[in-house]
From TrEMBL, chain A:
Pfam families: GRDB. The keyword Oxidoreductase applies. This is D-proline reductase (Dithiol) PrdB. InterPro entries: D_pro_red_PrdB (IPR022787), Various_sel_PB (IPR010187). The keyword Transport does not apply. NCBIfam families: D_pro_red_PrdB, various_sel_PB. It comes from the Bacteria.
TrEMBL record, chain B:
This is D-proline reductase (Dithiol) PrdA. It comes from the Bacteria. One of its GO terms (molecular function) is D-proline reductase activity. It comes from Spiroplasma chinense. InterPro entries: D_pro_red_PrdA (IPR031002), Gly_reductase_pB_sua/b (IPR015417).
Amino acid sequence: MAIKGFKSEIYVPITPPPVWAPVTKKLSEMNVSLVTAAGVHLKKDKPFNLAGDTSYRLIPSETPVEELMVSHGGYDNGDVNKDINCMFPIDRLRELADEGFIKGVSPVLVGTMGGGGNQHVFTDETGPKIAEILKEEKTDAVVLTAGRGTCHRTAVIVQRAIEEAGIPTIMIAALPPVCSQNGTPRAVAPLVPMGANAGEPNNKEMQTNILRDTLEQLVEIDQAGKIVPLPYEYHANI
Amino acid sequence: MSLSKEKIEKIKDKVAFTCCRFEAGKTIDESVLEDPALLPDFVDSGLIVVPDNVLKVREVIGAKLKVTVDALTPLTTDNVENIVSSSEPEKVEENVASVNQQVETQQVAFQTQPQMVTSAVQSNGMVNINIGKGENISISFPAGGGVSTPQPIYNEPITVEGKTSPTASQTVEQETVIRELKKEYIKVDKVELGTNTKLENGVLTLNKSLAKKAIARGNGIVKKFEYEVITEKDYGKVIDTIMDIQPIATKVEGELGQGVTRVLDKVVIMLTGIDGNKKQIGEFGSSEGEIDRNVMWGRPGAPDKGDIFIRCHVVIEANAGMERPGPLAAHMAADVIAQEIRDELKKATSVTVAKTEEFKHTRRPGKPKVCVLKEIMGQGAMHDNLILPVDPVGTVGAVPNVDLGNLPIAISPLELLDGGVHALTCIGPASKETSRHYFREPLVIRALSDPEIDFVGLVLVGSPQVNNEKFYVSKRVGMLFEYIKPDGVIITTEGFGNNHIDFAEHHRMIGQRDIKVVGMTYSAQQGGLVVGNEYMYAMVDLNKAQQGIENEILSNNTLSPEDAIRAVEMLKSIMAGNEIEEAERRWDPSVKLKNVKTIEDALGEKIVLELNEQSLEKSKKRREIYEKE
């Protein structure tokens, strides 16, 4: 007889199939790019639509931080307005290139808004397009950050697209459960609030350490879906 | 994020949150709402709070935003106007109920007229029913019980050909016994060490000078080998971690999986080991300490109270415990002892049979076709298994799973129960399956004995170390079951962690071929799934530990008869078209108890639940780590 009324005994997070681009070079031989779903763009660019925007902005690698800004309604902009490196650690990345930890900064970095944006467009169009651009620029690895919940989800969609194009990636997550559920290939999770994934604003040492550890984990993580906690803690006073 | 119309129908009773920022005056449709499946993660992250007055999806569709709202705003009476009244949705629900009624009727009809519904099931997984008479109503809903979401990755047309329920002519087909296995348990009153190995009049004498021979079989890695006899009065003895529990058995008629097997009754080999640095050979925990505080008596893979242990203890090369040759060498050495006894057992004449077990693999044409897929380890080190030895749980003739590429292997249920797998698996002692577990596998025994199913057979599949290989293997699993075309599959895995990646993928590969799937694993608190998919809707948790953790008590959280009953009944339920209620987001032991009660009420039988570690005196680790006083 078929009995009715059973309940499943194990919670199952619904995760898309993993994607995985293997790391094939040493860090010192890699050109690294940043991709963020935190609304970063050039001041001269058109701002993102805060109600959900699936477009992206390209940021040349030599851009001084004074020429960058954030258009994002989803998270508290206090920290990022003090120091954009706390979400978009472009200065730290250039410093790591200068000291030879990585070969260089990829010519093009990418900003999206991510929050609330249509997932299908990100999956089918924006993500693959960003991946294509990074591929053309011979990017060897990508570090990602994201604003709040839906932005973390968007960032993972873009991350997966880049990974599918064969470029290994790693996400610096403030919300690791969202990354996990959406199928991040690799991520690290410092103890940071939303809006300062890459470390406390104007704390160069913390930002450098987080970015350095992140890049090391890019090489070390051995299977898709792994999220490694990083031992850095920052509480925002907002 | 935009949700599809089909999705909206499924989530109509879930809470409504916006996915993006929307301006006041916007009419709410599917494009406005966030997928409710994602909301619990946002709650966990502290991103959102679900207020008491939040509206349901069905209440807001068609309503209007009173004010401009940001992404992930809960929709309530404060920000939504023209809310859809509750009377109408109820009516809709009635309609839905009556549609379901019709579907059930259709399914009954389908048993005798399969083609009717075959034509209605589209390749996109939707069932479209046209009711031509009257109002000319068209109804669409997802096929497959409505538990899974659409978007099948498997894009081949799904047909139901060959999977029809019995027709009148089929039901009278004869049941056929395709294989039989008899296990004769030979009475042993005493085991002692002596000059020669012999089994006479209930006394097993074991040659005490085999250590050198055992070390010689240890590939140069086994540095020390000792063996001793432990009886019930010495269960308090402190030993090193248990690497395996093995029955001692040999074929006396036929080959593995059929004929007659002799088994020593209430005597087992217990393999324990450390490396040259006195490190326990175990990756995720180890069961060293007093035997009676670290063993969950009576589990299929554990010793039974009263058993006599022939304890083989190995010391292997320092730091070899986590490399493939180390644990393998330990098993090879111990098998010298086992083989010595097997040889004697085979020829002994003055023996008494204490009990007999008979297993029949019966095919039952016309009943729902069921397979069991057991995921076992194949990652080198102690995560490996030796497949299909010549003698039960032997090593000769067996091939390491890792060398077989971890690919799915069709194995007769009786081959498994006849010791077809020699387990090298002892990573987390509480959730790992030992050799004795396979020899007494409760799910296979349950499936063999259930007259309501046609148990097609058993497939073993390895769990490789490398991520890409996991998917390579899983694709073969999918293809295999596409050919077998069962109605339902129960998938089991031992342990937890990286093997859940394969476990989840097997569900997808089988589930997307329109085959019902029940999954069994230890999960609870510590083994929570890291990945998942929509085909993992009917899950059985093997946890028994009070805290839901791996507490290093041998076999505590392994598949037991009570779990086998739930899994088989759950599969029969979904194969009949019943739905399974969604799992709680967090481990709740009462869910299992409720399922047990559901079965007890329906069958009018009492299900015996296993004791857990609370029935034992606390081990050192429990006192110091897990259950501090």
